[in-house]
Design a protein that fits this description.
The structure holds two protein chains of two kinds.
Chain A: H1 17-22, E1 37-43, E2 49-55, H2 57-61, E3 65-70, E4 93-94, E5 104-105, E6 111-117, H3 120-127, E7 131-136, H4 154-158, E8 167-169, E9 180-188, E10 200-207, E11 210-215, H5 220-230, E12 238-241, H6 257-269, E13 273-276, H7 281-284, E14 292-300, E15 306-318, E16 321-322, H8 329-333, E17 339-349, H9 360-379, H10 384-390, H11 408-419, E18 431-433, E19 436-448, E20 454-460, E21 466-469, H12 479-491, E22 498-501, H13 518-542, H14 546-549, E23 556-558, E24 562-565, E25 568-574, H15 575-580, E26 587-591, H16 596-599, E27 603-615, E28 621-631, H17 638-657, E29 663-664, E30 669-670, E31 690-693, H18 717-729
Parallel strand pairs in A: 1-13, 11-12, 15-17, 21-22, 28-31
Antiparallel strand pairs in A: 1-6, 2-5, 2-7, 3-6, 4-16, 8-17, 9-14, 10-11, 10-13, 14-15, 18-19, 19-27, 20-21, 20-26, 23-24, 24-25, 27-28, 29-30
Chain B: H1 13-32, H2 35-42, H3 47-54, E1 56-62, E2 65-71, H4 77-84, E3 103-106, E4 109-112, E5 125-127, H5 140-148, H6 157-169, H7 176-182, H8 193-206
Parallel strand pairs in B: 1-5
Antiparallel strand pairs in B: 1-2, 3-4, 3-5
Helix pairs in contact in B: 2-3, 5-8, 6-8
Classes of the chains: A alpha+beta, B alpha+beta.
The structure holds FE2/S2 (inorganic) cluster (2 copies).
Pfam family, one (chain B): Fer2_2
InterPro entries (chain B): 2Fe-2S-bd, 2Fe-2S-bd_dom_sf, 2Fe-2S_ferredoxin-like_sf, 2Fe-2S_ferredoxin-type, 2Fe2S_fd_BS, Aldehyde_Oxdr_Iron-Sulfur, Beta-grasp_dom_sf, TAT_signal
Domain 2Fe-2S ferredoxin-type (chain B): 56-132
Chain lengths: 744, 210
């Protein structure tokens, strides 16, 4: 490959593809450590109350058992007693469960004990021998029954500027007096992330005050901070390794009780301990998209101008942590409406804490908003795409700032053409193919183009290759691949001569992989670190070679075996010489966002178009076409970015048509326990998803022009499908998922 | 708002159900564990004695390598591969035969290794993802997965590839729809389905030996 071929934008194969297709990629339960022990959790069988006794005798006597640990005998975790310092802090109030600290039960299946043995089989068997007695208290697990107790989040109560506060522009609830108006209620059930890799951790105390964990996490630094605090250790004494993460979709954004349990267990048995949750435990203790009730009121003029929107929501949280998400954000900024009111509330239930699930609150809110847009367009007898165009915003109506970039109209056009929008009829039930009714629907998504600080280290190796390191993670989008491409362009070398290492808290620091922010943040740091490395090499070369001393860093070329100048091929300094002068020391550069966010509203945008076929008699819904178009700024890699969009669309199919976790409120316990009763999309549920990118750089988010993809890939998909189902059948389903029983 | 009040279970019902649950989970546990193990546990037998009773001999050929093993009858083929043989390419995604992450070939047939006990395969040949390539040369299906980006996180990938190879060998890769049907036992939560189908089509149409 020629050095000048641009890598950014090229559909390069993944740098870790070989490891993934050969089974060589190691996930957190797959590290071979000497003398490893296995831990299995025992969960509570009540949803609220106290543990009165635990009989662990039989378990302790079972073959191979090394320890049975509960609050009766757990060693003291010093950080649990440090007042005011919660070990993890994604929540706006409260704090995570302090495992095995007291007798209190806060949700059903809360870990009450951990059994450690020398094999999975023995640990699993012994875990079943542990018996607990409880003093149960009356529990609440139903959001609607608790709706009257819903409250404004504490963070908003404390800070009137907090975004979770009630919002109003124009007149409050003005839709009520509108000429043409609607008022609808929407329900999203609890959805569970269910990455294919079960949550797993291998905890290893390498010394009494040095902990290494191989963990499923989206943020090695955040996890390191959490467990350093739990054990009152300096952060550098804790190492978190997450080289490969088998999907997460948000559920590894929090440190969970099972991680603390494995670390305690490793301390007790003084051996490395491996713990992997079961699929049913994935429902109860590692977060979920919260069950959310929403009400949306909208009014419009007969010519299709929105006059007012009121959007309210109540999301569930646990009794011990206040989890919040931006359910109402899109309603405040997507459409031109002079009057907008939003009210966000929480209901605290006796269940585990939720955690952001792909697209998080925005995907929940977009289901209500984009469904209501479709309902209003229908009332106005307008094409829903035309209705959206009539209410398009050229600046952010929430704060009056200009958009950094917005190419949503271009997305509309790309998508409408590809799905065949011109075939859509205004009248529902107009199109059919035998017993199948055909319908078309659209849904819009948006998510903030977030960027945080990130640091990347760049190092020249003796063989002339470049090693880059960063603590960021890759839960699937292809972070290492995108960074290799960015580095290849910055260094002007073949990507094969670059190795980007990630997923290790000892590497230069980076934020957590979440909120579609990784490329926005780590991308510029990679680029700047590579340029800084070039400049350093030029300076070193310049010490003994005048041509380099006066050259510009852009001119510096890393050829095979030596450094040269693009303007002067005769200038050469070998890598061996440079390394003698310290050229192999890593250059570490931190890149931070500037003040652009003050001047511009920065968002990624997407639109999803669905064609569905609904069987008249059985109510079966098949998504026959799904077209997702995105304005996500510069696309670093069409292949991996396109894949990410497809994956988000498939997630949206699950949200729209099948995913729902159910609790039996009498017992406060999930009745959905595995993939037999919690359905996720399989091959046969997924059409050949079509993706199109506008691919216009955003000059304000960062120098690369990226805006982020992960969330907008899902936000707006579920309403696109629900709207298509309405167009096919005339039935408006406002409570997800759209199962056949709701259509017949 | 739809009403869905919390039910107060009648007194006694609750208790009875809990007792039933407790008993049934214990019964299930016992059903899955051979009697000597339970006896050993109850009698608090010495570790060595328990170990001797627990294990049975097993001969297996994995990726062309012959093993003579002593395993507990309750050990699944999946746990044997991952924990005893350190062949961690085969993944655990559910342990209930519902996701396909653990797919391996036993005597050429695709099998959910979490759903079968290792001892059921005495004398058989097992191929895992680690044994699919010919030395450094990737199997055509592995090549095609890389080329078409048939994965994201990579966790379902070994199972998808083992299943995909079998799908082609079985003659079930005749069309996109048929591939989707016969690959539906392999869940990809990252949603790389379109790309996986494209990879399988390429191998099928390429006519290479799979
Ligand atoms: S782990 Fe075997 S099918 Fe899921
Ligand atoms: S690649 Fe992540 S589950 Fe398939």
């Amino acid at each position: 490959m020629k050095a000048q071929d641009k890598q950014i934008g090229a559909p390069m194969n993944r740098v870790d593809g070989h490891l993934k297709v050969t089974g060589a990629a190691k996930y957190s339960a797959e590290y071979e450590l000497p003398n490893i022990a296995y831990a299995v959790l025992v969960g509570s069988t009540i949803a609220r109350g106290r543990i009165t006794s635990i009989d662990a005798k039989a378990a302790e006597k079972a073959p191979g058992v090394l320890a049975v640990i509960s609050h009766f005998n757990s060693p003291k975790v010093p950080g649990f007693d440090t007042a005011g310092k919660d070990p993890s802090q994604p929540a706006t109030a409260g704090g995570p469960i302090k495992i095995f600290k007291d007798d209190k039960i806060r949700f059903n299946d809360q870990p009450i004990a951990v059994v450690v043995a020398d094999s999975w089989e023995r640990a699993r068997f012994a875990a079943r021998l542990v018996k607990a007695q409880y003093a149960p208290e009356k529990h609440k697990t139903n959001l609607e029954a608790s709706a009257s107790e819903a409250f404004l989040p504490t963070a908003a109560k404390k800070n009137p500027k907090h975004p979770m506060n009630d919002y109003q522009r124009g007149q409050a609830d003005a839709y009520k007096t509108g000429a043409i108006k609607l008022e609808s209620e929407y329900v999203i059930p609890t959805e569970v992330h269910h990455p294919m890799e079960l949550q797993a951790i291998t905890a290893h105390w390498e010394a009494p005050d040095r902990l290494t964990i191989y963990d499923k996490t989206q943020g090695t630094m955040a996890t390191r901070r959490d467990f350093a605090r739990e054990w009152n250790l300096p952060e550098e004494n804790v190492k978190v390794i997450a080289t490969f993460v088998g999907g997460a979709f948000g559920n590894a954004l929090h440190s969970w009780p099972h991680e603390s349990a494995a670390i305690i267990a490793a301390k007790v048995v003084n051996r490395p301990v491996k713990l992997m949750l079961t699929r049913e435990q994935m429902f109860t203790m590692v977060g979920y998209r919260p069950y959310t009730w929403q009400k949306l009121g909208m009014s419009a003029t007969p010519d299709g101008k929105i006059t007012a929107i009121t959007h309210e929501s109540i999301g569930q949280t646990s009794t011990y942590e206040e989890f919040t998400e931006s359910t109402l954000a899109q309603t405040r900024m997507m459409y031109q409406s002079p009057n907008v009111t939003t009210r966000y509330r929480l209901a605290a239930l006796d269940i585990g804490s939720p955690i952001w699930m792909r697209g998080p609150g925005e995907a929940t809110g977009a289901f209500a908003l984009e469904s209501a847009m479709d309902e209003m367009a229908f009332m106005l007898n307008l094409d829903p795409l035309e209705f959206r165009l009539r209410n398009y915003t050229d600046k952010d109506p929430e704060n009056g700032k200009p958009w950094s970039t917005k190419f949503l109209k271009e997305c509309y056009q790309l998508g409408a053409e590809r799905v065949g929008w011109n075939k859509r009829q205004l009248k529902p039930g107009s199109l059919r193919d035998g017993e199948w009714l055909i319908g078309y629907g659209m849904g819009v998504g948006t998510f903030g183009a977030h960027r945080g600080a990130a640091t990347v280290g760049a190092q020249l190796l003796p063989d002339g290759t470049v090693l880059l390191q960063c603590a960021t993670t890759d839960i699937g989008p292809g972070t290492g691949t995108a960074m290799t491409q960015i580095a290849a362009d910055a260094l002007g070398i073949d990507p094969k001569r670059i190795r980007f290492e990630l997923g290790n808290s000892s590497f230069p620091k980076a934020g957590t992989q979440g909120g579609s922010s990784t490329v926005n943040s780590v991308g510029p740091a990679t680029q700047e670190a590579c340029l800084a490395l070039k400049d350093k090499l030029r300076t070193l070369a310049g010490a003994g070679n005048a041509a380099f001393a006066s050259a510009k860093k852009e001119d510096v070329t890393l050829a095979d075996g030596y450094l040269t100048l693009s303007s002067n091929a005769a200038a050469k300094v070998s890598y061996a010489d440079l390394i003698k002068q310290g050229g192999d020391k890593a250059v570490t550069v931190e890149a931070k966002p500037g003040g652009e966010g003050q001047k511009y509203s920065m968002y990624s945008f997407s639109v999803h178009f669905a064609e569905v076929r609904v069987h008249e008699l059985t109510g079966e819904v098949r998504v026959s076409k799904l077209v997702s178009c995105a304005d996500a700024g510069t696309i670093i890699n069409e292949k991996t970015a396109g894949n990410q969009m497809k994956g988000g669309a498939v997630g949206g199919i699950g949200m729209a048509l099948m995913e729902a976790a159910h609790i039996d409120d009498r017992f406060g316990r999930y009745v959905t326990k595995d993939f037999a009763d919690y359905h996720v999309p399989v091959h046969a549920d997924s059409p050949d998803v079509q993706v199109a990118f506008v691919n216009q750089p955003d000059p304000h988010v960062n120098a690369l022009g990226t805006k982020g993809i992960g969330e907008i890939a899902t936000i707006g998909v579920a309403p696109a499908i629900a709207n298509a189902v309405f167009n096919a059948t005339g039935k408006r389903v406002r409570e997800l998922p759209i199962t056949p029983d709701k259509l017949i | 708002m739809a009403m869905n009040p919390e039910h107060d279970a009648p007194a006694g019902h609750d208790e009875a159900r809990r007792t039933f649950l407790k008993q049934s989970s214990l019964l299930t546990a016992l059903a899955f564990v051979p009697a000597p193990v339970v006896d050993a546990a109850a009698a608090n037998l010495d570790e060595k004695v328990a170990g001797a009773i627990e294990k049975v001999p097993l001969k297996l050929e994995v990726n062309g390598k012959k093993y003579k093993l002593a395993v507990e009858p309750r050990t699944t083929l999946l746990d044997l591969l991952r924990e005893e043989l350190n062949l961690t390419g085969t993944k655990k995604g559910c342990d209930y035969g519902q996701c396909g992450a653990c797919t391996v070939h036993v005597d050429g047939q695709r099998v959910n290794s979490c759903l079968s006990f290792a001892v059921m395969h005495d004398g058989r040949k097992v191929t895992t993802i680690e044994g699919l390539a010919d030395g450094d040369k990737l199997h055509p299906m592995q090549e095609a997965f890389v080329k078409h980006d048939g994965f994201q996180c990579g966790y379902c990938t070994p199972g998808q590839i083992m299943s995909a190879v079998a799908c082609v060998r079985e003659g079930h890769a005749g069309s996109d729809a048929e591939i989707r049907e016969y690959m539906s036992g392999n869940i990809c939560r990252c949603g790389a389905y379109s790309n996986i189908v494209a990879a399988i089509q390429e191998v099928k149409n390429g006519g290479q030996k799979v």
